[in-house]
């Protein structure tokens, strides 16, 4: 996956911006063809996002997992790995924190903190498993990720049903109040929007990502491995160790997403037929953001706003919310195949030269 | 014994959709294009299968409707296959990311169309003319074997035919040799004077349509309509079946049967008292774990086509 | 008389890559039933010329005649139709296929829709018997030895009706036994009426099989000679030309302690070929030991085993008297070794990082460059600026991304990094490949300066001129073996050329 990392590094910043604009225009054209008014649709999207205190709180709640997932993927990308196993890491983090949150008796905050830490470590170890399969058995991380996502899903079902079931429903028992990481007073202020510790931890992670890659020797060696693992080997860097370490951190961030959902948002874990898909959104966000701190942050916010606002489109303009999903996939499509954007905009070669 | 026969029969029903989806995935990977878009192609197939059959019914085509659904799925999924071909071949996008895009796009586009076509409904209207099981005369009356193998949907026999014919084409004909060569070493195929691009193009196009048949099968035999959870991860299971089946049609079939068996057995599990102690999830889990173990055992000697996921540039010799 | 019939003729063929002439006005005449050798050093333009003949690219000037008819060869397919077959140096085989499947690919015999595997297998068998190419048509290529795989490549060309066969460095990957067998096969082929172009730089092969030999040097046609009228000395001289071996100004040779000592190093490839064969050598402080040899004779493996990038089978390597067994690459660097690898882009640099970041590639982890967590960015930048000055690295600033820089400046970045680490042993491979004269002089002077300071230097190069002007001693490596040692002040191009081509003197 070195090619991906390189591709992102050399990419023109214009491409993601143009890709977003073109995709939104495409979306508008589809809406017109389908007989909807795109202006009203986009307006109601924005209204939904900024309409009320509750919505602002909830949109933040919706953005947090997307941001974290984007950074989990971006981190792995920096080391030349494509982590499409974030979904599995989320599941493992969630179920681990659920178990600690329900089974253990600790005082508030300490309980939440313990459950959070266990969830994060569990997610990290799930990531290490992918690294181990890659370094020890040369199994491509994409393939093992797909398998491990399902293993994680059914493992979580087993643990929920076997240890913390809620009889008569397709979900786990509730966590103890002491394990909650909700910000209750802020939540009241926002009319019940489900805000949690993630409000503070997520910016820390983003800053940590920036700091790691822009300041530290560890970030430096990680990038060297991702950009040219032959040179890294020549320079005496232990490539396999970096891969393992990176997958631990990436998995831990994935685990954190699951922790927030379980301890901060829902207070239980559902037995769902599939994993959340947030991990795949993360692939899109990291790609769109070019693995940079600012880019990944912006694209995480963008995707989050579009996704959350899409409910408003349905409500306000009658446009099926899936149109936003289509727009998001088109954005990634254009970013992944930049040649296509150039085809669509014949003048771009020219513009590009001026910018550079 | 009757129970076991039912389990086997059930396995086959589940397995057929997986096998068709996996055959599609196998074909494009044989030509060197990683296919993570199987899920998307299956979703597309399920959708077009459902609306094809539905509109055929409204035109009073009766028993022909599911066949029309199947054809609609096969033909119209070409739209998504074409996008995938463009991204991976013409614009040389990363195969894995293109696959993820196809899955996202196809899910959202089809759900969007369902709402658009059926006044905001979350699923397509139920089809009354679904495929019916065919009892093969005489054979279906054989005890055990009859129930297990000879009372199946026409799609089952179709899938079997595709496996037999597909294996023949892949391993016995010139075109099969060229497709396999393209996935292993496009440079060798190119210097033999064969157009690598063309081979990849048509392999991926057909790949999407084959996977689509798998998606359509689910709608036209068991579900009866298309909704957001008609295809929930089967595409990824199909990819596992490709790996487990070592990129061979018959292997893929056994892989799909194993996954189908795991699904069927949890439906029948209550009948086996001795299995009570085992959580049903174990049966879900097992196929993935087996696939991983298979990968560990084969390790770097995996039978994946050697040039899988690479972009071939004929100007670099 | 068939002997005089020309099957292939090139007139004034030129091929330019950018401003650089890979081939300039080259003439070549291949007679029917002849083996015609094409001799030249690495990069002399042999492969470019033959790629033109095979239709892989179009010449910028000149004419090609096949069977005395002027023809523009559009692509490999066209070349095949004209009866030209190429046995590539890197085989174009599908490893997962059987021998027969590989041979018939693209021209499959059929019954109905299916491949007629029976008749295909028979045809392959007949062909292989006719030309003495012993292979089992039904075995998988991945299970075959390299020499046998090469026979499959030859059969592939014959199956397609090739009458003119181009062999591109065919013996480079073969064991001595296999080489003998291949040369016999070639003789059989011409006896059956085929014509052969043999690209090589091994003189003994030419002397034993070829009828004629055309020598090219630096892209230019030098001479065509009849083998019966020449000898190895003449060929070697034609190949390397008159090099002006000027010794650079340097202190008198005054070797100090042994720094590097290698004893009986062996390395065998997976396919059983000996890559390093009982290599022993020593390098003293204040000495440049040159390793001469044609590319692919074990040089890169030798160097990579010294720094423990690869593991050897048996043998011992000592640096300053200490065995390197079990040491990490980092340990070895810390013991005073610097290493300038042959491949700048693959190993030496991280092309997408900037100059100052590349300058700390080996030592970023040391206290000198970080406080345990954070890199000392200011210091790294300042050092980058200094080294750019000291090593004459020309770029906008120390924050310039290395990818866009010229080869010479890229090489200077590596050199700056490795020399600044104050090594006691400097391993330097192909230090001036593809560089302009200014950069070459600069790098040569740096090497001499280090030698004069007492550093032990192991210089691996394919350029005779470079070896002669820099080295205090030269060891010649051939087929993984050190086959001799010469004193650069007491040798000449002919002697070296002969030895590099495998002829001990």
Can you characterise this structure?
The complex is a heterotrimer of chains A (356), B (317) and C (505). In chain A, 76% of the residues lie in helices and 0% in strands. With 356 residues, chain A is mostly helical. Chain A has a single domain (2-355), classed as ABC transporter involved in vitamin B12 uptake, BtuC. Chain B has helices spanning 2-30, 38-58, 65-76, 78-90, 95-117, 145-149, 154-172, 174-184, 186-191, 196-223, 234-244, 249-268, 281-298; strands at 134-135, 151-152. Chain B has a two-stranded antiparallel ribbon. The longest helix of chain B has 29 residues, at 2-30. The radius of gyration of chain B is 20 Å and the shape is globular. Chain B starts with a helix and ends in a 19-residue tail after the last helix. Chain C is α/β, with parallel strands linked by helices. Chain C folds into three domains: 2-240, P-loop containing nucleotide triphosphate hydrolases (Rossmann fold, 3-Layer(aba) Sandwich); 246-336 and 423-505, Rossmann fold; 349-421, no CATH class. Chain C is globular. Chains in contact: A-B, A-C, B-C. Chain B binds chain C through residues 168, 172-174, 177-178, 180-181, 184-185, 187-194, 306, 317, and chain C through 51, 56, 76-77, 80, 88, 92-97, 101-102, 104-108, 110, 113-115, 156.
CATH fold category name of chain B: ABC transporter involved in vitamin B12 uptake, BtuC
Average pLDDT taken over every residue of chain C: 89
CATH class of chain B: Mainly Alpha
Unreliable stretches of chain C:
none
**Largest sheet entry of chain B:** 2 strands, antiparallel
For the biggest sheet of chain C, the summary is:
6 strands, mixed
| Topology-level CATH name of the largest domain in chain C | Rossmann fold
How many domain regions of chain B?
Answer: 1
Q: DSSP strand (E) fraction of chain C? A: 25-35%
| Class computed from helices, strands and strand pairing of chain C | alpha/beta
The N- and C-terminal alpha carbons of chain B lie at a distance of: 61 Å
Secondary-structure map:
The complex is a heterotrimer of chains A (356), B (317) and C (505).
Chain A: H1 2-9, H2 14-33, H3 38-50, H4 53-78, H5 86-103, H6 110-137, H7 141-163, H8 184-189, H9 198-215, H10 217-227, H11 229-234, H12 239-266, H13 278-288, H14 293-317, H15 322-336, H16 338-344, H17 348-355
Helix pairs in contact in A: 2-15, 3-14, 4-9, 4-12, 4-13, 4-14, 5-6, 5-7, 5-12, 5-13, 6-7, 6-12, 9-10, 13-14, 13-15, 14-15, 15-16
Chain B: H1 2-30, H2 38-58, H3 65-76, H4 78-90, H5 95-117, E1 134-135, H6 145-149, E2 151-152, H7 154-172, H8 174-184, H9 186-191, H10 196-223, H11 234-244, H12 249-268, H13 281-298
Antiparallel strand pairs in B: 1-2
Chain C: E1 6-17, E2 20-31, E3 35-39, H1 46-53, E4 61-66, E5 69-70, H2 76-81, E6 84-87, H3 99-104, E7 110-111, E8 114-115, H4 117-130, H5 146-159, E9 164-168, H6 176-191, E10 195-200, H7 203-209, E11 212-217, E12 220-226, H8 232-240, E13 258-268, E14 274-284, E15 288-292, H9 299-306, E16 314-319, E17 322-323, H10 329-334, E18 337-340, H11 344-348, H12 355-359, H13 377-390, H14 407-420, E19 425-429, H15 437-452, E20 456-461, H16 464-470, E21 473-478, E22 481-486, H17 493-500
Parallel strand pairs in C: 3-10, 3-11, 6-9, 9-10, 15-20, 15-21, 18-19, 19-20
Antiparallel strand pairs in C: 1-2, 1-4, 4-5, 7-8, 11-12, 13-14, 13-16, 16-17, 21-22
């Amino acid at each position: 996956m070195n090619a991906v990392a390189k591709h992102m590094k050399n990419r023109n910043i214009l491409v993601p911006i143009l890709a977003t604009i073109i995709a939104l225009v495409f979306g508008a054209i589809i809406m017109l063809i389908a007989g909807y008014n795109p202006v009203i649709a986009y307006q109601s999207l924005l209204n939904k996002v900024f309409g009320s205190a509750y919505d602002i709180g909830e949109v933040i709640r919706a953005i947090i997992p997307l941001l974290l997932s984007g950074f989990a993927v971006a981190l792995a990308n920096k080391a030349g790995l494509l982590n499409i196993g974030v979904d599995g890491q989320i599941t493992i983090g969630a179920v681990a924190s659920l178990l600690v949150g329900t089974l253990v008796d600790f005082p508030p905050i300490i309980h939440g903190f313990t459950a959070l830490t266990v969830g994060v470590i569990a997610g990290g170890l799930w990531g290490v498993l992918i690294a181990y399969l890659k370094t020890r058995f040369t199994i491509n991380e994409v393939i093992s990720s797909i398998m491990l996502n399902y293993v994680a899903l059914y493992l979580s079902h087993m643990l929920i049903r076997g240890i913390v079931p809620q009889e008569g429903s397709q979900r786990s028992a509730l966590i103890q109040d002491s394990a909650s990481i909700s910000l209750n007073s802020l939540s009241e202020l926002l009319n019940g929007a489900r805000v949690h510790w993630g409000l503070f931890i997520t910016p820390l992670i983003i800053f940590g990502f920036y700091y790691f890659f822009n300041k530290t020797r560890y970030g430096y060696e990680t990038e060297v491995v991702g950009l040219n693992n032959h040179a890294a080997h020549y320079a005496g860097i232990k490539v396999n160790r970096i891969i393992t370490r990176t997958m631990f951190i990436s998995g831990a961030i994935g685990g954190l997403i699951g922790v927030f959902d379980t301890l901060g948002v829902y207070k239980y874990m559902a037995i769902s037929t599939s994993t959340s898909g947030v991990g795949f959104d993360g692939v899109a966000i990291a790609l769109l953001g070019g693995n940079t701190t600012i880019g990944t942050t912006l694209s995480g916010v963008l995707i989050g706003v579009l996704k959350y606002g899409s409910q408003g489109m349905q409500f306000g303009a009658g446009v099926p919310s899936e149109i936003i999903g289509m727009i998001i996939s088109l954005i990634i499509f254009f970013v992944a195949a930049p040649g296509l954007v150039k085809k669509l905009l014949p003048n771009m070669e020219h513009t590009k030269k001026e910018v550079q | 014994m009757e129970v076991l026969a039912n389990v086997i029969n059930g396995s086959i029903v589940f397995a057929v959709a997986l096998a068709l989806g996996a055959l599609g995935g196998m074909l494009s990977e044989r030509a060197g294009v990683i296919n993570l878009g199987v899920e998307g192609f299956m979703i597309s197939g399920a959708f077009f299968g459902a609306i094809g059959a539905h509109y055929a019914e409204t035109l009073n085509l009766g028993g022909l409707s599911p066949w029309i659904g199947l054809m609609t799925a096969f033909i119209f999924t070409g739209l998504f296959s074409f996008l995938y071909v463009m991204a991976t071949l013409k614009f040389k996008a990363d195969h894995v990311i293109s696959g993820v895009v196809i899955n996202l796009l196809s899910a959202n586009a089809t759900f969007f169309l369902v709402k658009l076509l059926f006044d905001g409904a979350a699923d397509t209207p139920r089809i009354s003319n679904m495929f019916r099981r065919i009892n093969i005369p005489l054979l279906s009356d054989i005890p055990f074997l009859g129930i297990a193998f000879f009372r199946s949907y026409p799609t089952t026999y179709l899938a079997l035919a595709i496996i037999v014919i597909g294996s023949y084409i892949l391993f016995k004909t010139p075109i099969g040799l060229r497709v396999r060569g393209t996935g292993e070493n496009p440079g060798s195929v190119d210097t033999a004077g064969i157009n690598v691009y063309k081979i990849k193009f048509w392999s991926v196009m057909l790949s999407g349509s084959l996977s689509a048949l798998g998606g359509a099968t689910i709608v036209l035999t068991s579900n009866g309509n298309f909704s957001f959870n008609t295809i929930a991860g089967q595409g990824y299971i199909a990819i596992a079946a490709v790996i487990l089946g070592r990129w061979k049609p018959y292997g893929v079939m056994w892989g799909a049967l194993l996954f189908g068996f795991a699904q069927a057995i949890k439906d029948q599990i209550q009948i086996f008292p001795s299995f009570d102690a085992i959580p049903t999830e174990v049966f879900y889990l097992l196929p993935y774990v087996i696939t991983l173990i298979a990968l560990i055992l084969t390790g770097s000697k995996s039978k994946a086509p050697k040039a899988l996921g690479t972009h071939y540039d004929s100007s670099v010799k | 008389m068939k002997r005089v019939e020309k099957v292939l003729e090139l007139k004034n063929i030129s091929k330019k890559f950018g401003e650089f002439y890979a081939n300039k006005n080259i003439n070549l005449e291949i007679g029917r039933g002849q083996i015609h050798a094409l001799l030249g050093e690495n990069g002399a333009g042999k492969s470019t010329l033959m790629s033109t003949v095979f239709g892989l690219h179009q010449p910028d000037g000149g004419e090609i005649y096949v069977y005395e008819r002027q023809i523009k060869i559009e692509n490999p397919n066209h070349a095949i139709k004209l009866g030209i077959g190429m046995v590539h140096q890197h085989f174009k085989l599908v490893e997962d296929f059987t021998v027969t499947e590989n041979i018939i690919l693209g021209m499959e015999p059929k019954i109905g829709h299916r491949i007629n595997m029976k008749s295909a297998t028979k045809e392959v068998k007949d062909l292989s018997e006719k030309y003495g190419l012993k292979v089992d048509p039904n075995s998988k290529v991945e299970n075959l030895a390299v020499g046998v795989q090469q026979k499959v490549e030859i059969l592939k060309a014959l199956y397609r009706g090739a009458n003119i066969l181009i062999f591109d460095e065919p013996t480079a990957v073969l064991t001595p036994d296999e080489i003998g067998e291949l040369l016999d096969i070639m003789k059989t082929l011409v006896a059956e009426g085929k014509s052969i172009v043999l690209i090589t730089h091994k003189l003994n092969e030419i002397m034993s099989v070829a009828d004629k030999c055309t020598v090219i040097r630096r892209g230019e046609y030098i001479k065509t000679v009849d083998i019966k009228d020449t000898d190895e000395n003449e060929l070697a001289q034609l190949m390397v030309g008159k090099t002006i071996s000027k010794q650079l100004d340097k202190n008198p040779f005054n070797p100090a302690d042994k720094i590097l000592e290698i004893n009986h190093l062996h390395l065998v490839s997976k396919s059983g070929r000996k890559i390093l064969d009982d290599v022993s050598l020593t390098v003293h402080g204040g000495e440049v030991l040159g390793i001469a040899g044609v590319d692919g004779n074990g040089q890169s493996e030798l160097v990579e085993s010294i720094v423990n990038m690869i593991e050897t089978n048996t043998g011992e390597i000592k640096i300053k008297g200490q065995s390197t067994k079990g040491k990490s690459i980092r340990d070895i660097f810390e013991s005073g070794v610097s290493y300038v690898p042959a491949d700048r882009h693959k190993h030496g640099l991280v092309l997408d990082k900037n100059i100052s970041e590349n300058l700390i590639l080996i030592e970023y982890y040391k206290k000198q460059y970080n406080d345990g967590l954070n890199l000392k960015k200011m210091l790294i930048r300042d050092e980058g600026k200094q080294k750019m000055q000291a090593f004459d690295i020309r770029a906008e600033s120390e924050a310039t991304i290395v990818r866009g820089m010229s080869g010479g400046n890229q090489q200077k970045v590596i050199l700056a990094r490795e020399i600044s680490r104050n090594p006691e042993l400097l391993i330097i491979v192909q230090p001036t490949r593809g560089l302009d004269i200014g950069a070459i002089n600069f790098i040569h002077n740096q090497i001499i300066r280090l030698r004069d300071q007492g550093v032990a230097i192991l210089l691996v190069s394919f350029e005779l001129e470079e070896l002669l002007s820099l080295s205090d001693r030269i060891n010649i490596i051939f087929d993984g073996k050190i086959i001799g040692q010469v004193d650069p002040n007491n040798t000449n191009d002919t002697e070296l050329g002969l030895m590099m081509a495998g002829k001990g003197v």
